[in-house]
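Reply to dn_fold:

You asked what the input looked like. This is it:
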Amino acid sequence: MRPWKLLGLAGLAGVAATGAVLARGERQRRAHTPEEIRTRLRERHAALADVPEPAPSREELVSGRGHRLARVLRRR
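and this is what came back:
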């Protein structure tokens, strides 16, 4: 019976530790005001908008079987 007691106590300790980690994350998340969150999201969006997307290669275009442009390029 002793191994089952140890297993049960280990399970309870795991549940308690998980709850503590989740509660800590929730407190940190709620510490920001909505204005701060909007500002940070706008900054991140602006930073990503400045980076140009690379043009897809011919192989990437041809790999999409159902794509119309891929069918046209495969004929050539």
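The chain has one domain: 2-75.
Hope that clears it up.
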